[in-house]
Amino acid sequence: MSFSDWYNRSLNKIWGFVEDRTAMKRWALRPQPEFSFKPSYWTGAFVAVALVYQIISGALLLLYYQPSTSSTLTGCGQAVGSASTAPAAWCSTYYIIHSVPMGELLLSSHLYGAYAMIFLLFLHFFRGYYVGVYKSPREFSWMVGTLLMVVTLGMGFTGYLLPYTQLAYNATNVGVVLALRLPTVGPLLGPLILADGTGQGLLSRMFDAHVILLPLALAGLFYAHLALFESHGIAPPATSDPLQRRRFTDKEEKDHVPFIPHILFYTLKWGLLYLGVLFGIAALWPWSLPTYVGNTAAVGVVTEPDWYFLWLFKLVDFQGVTPVIAIAASTAILLYILFLPFLDRSKRTHPRDRPLFIFIGTCLLEFFVVMTVWGGETPGVQIIPIQIAETLGPPFAVTALAVGLFHWRYRLSYRRRLAARQSQSFAGPYPSAVPAPHPTPSATEVSSPE
After folding, report:
1. Which of 119, 196, 313, 356 could form a Cys-Cys staple with 201, CB 3.0–4.6 A?
2. Of 202-211, 246-255, 345-354, 435-444, which range is least confident?
3. Assigned domain for 389 exists
4. CATH code of the domain covering residue 101
5. For the packed helices 214-232 and 43-61, what is the interaxial angle rounded to 10 degrees?
6. Is residue 102 assigned to a domain?
7. Which pTM value belongs to this model?
8. Which residues have a Cβ under 8 Å from the Cβ of 421 and sit 6 or more positions away?
């Protein structure tokens, strides 16, 4: 017996003892099938790894950060000079970067980690969208995951203001105005967000939301999402078979790979790779702190949010699009995503069997990408309708053509295969009047691709 076999067998025995005494198999850390050991099946685990690092790095930053707009020279006198002062929130951020050991790496990795978490969340979302993981029995898991994405974006929005830079302050004010335009909810959010209407009130509310309120919501939703995942297990591969089971039986799970050590080590491998890349990027391209709120040199600063909200800010630049219309459009997109499991009622999960929803999802992806790039290149520049049509029309048209063409080709090939199977079953291998017996076509081939 090799050392690897002995080591794995020993860990299995130890973990088996723990599972037996805690009944853990009934509520967490269930085994997973061998086919799932591919990175595409573990995008949700990558988001969880990014979340864990954000919690750790954020807790360390709290040791030095001061959520105050009071003027001070503590920690940043060299930056602002002796003739002026800066807000304590900005000065404490400056102190973290320039005076705390490894502070620049810590702050930069926390910022880039937030970007990475949001990017991985989008990747996880679109991967699930294309392979149809939102179908029965995972409807509620999809809805909880959608709310998780909204809360994560809220974490990014509230954290953007904390360094209290002029750029972040301008962008946050625009975001607050958009939030206050929400029907019914907007007037209720006003006192909650703005507090007493001062800069300190706004910063305090953003800090409380970023450190207490949204993390609590994130923890509750994450637990619910994980519990639903443990209840249903990983989704089987996408299929055209409407009779395909969408969950594994207890007997099948006994043959699956256990969590300890296989799944744990697999996740740790990718988690360590993520941390290595994150630290490398933070070390090579550390974040540069913009100037603070109230600095006279910041008069010409262009209002621009972080990249994940650029699409919404650019939407307001469209001629004829008011903040109310922009909020209504984003709300409609959110409601579509949230209730997608009840809109797409097909039993099939393969993308080729869902042309309409694949077209809508691809158009959404193209819309977010194009608008993000557009917003970064021309922030605050008004766009006339003809420019909108020329920019967004071609990718949407190409998507419609590609999806329609591939679905049409699939239907033709399907019908040829079905006709060949049926003719063979009636003709038989011998030229006799009685057809030879032939296996019944599978559910995948009998069912129509419609």
Report:
1. 196
2. 435-444
3. no
4. 1.20.810.10
5. 150
6. yes
7. 0.83
8. 441, 445
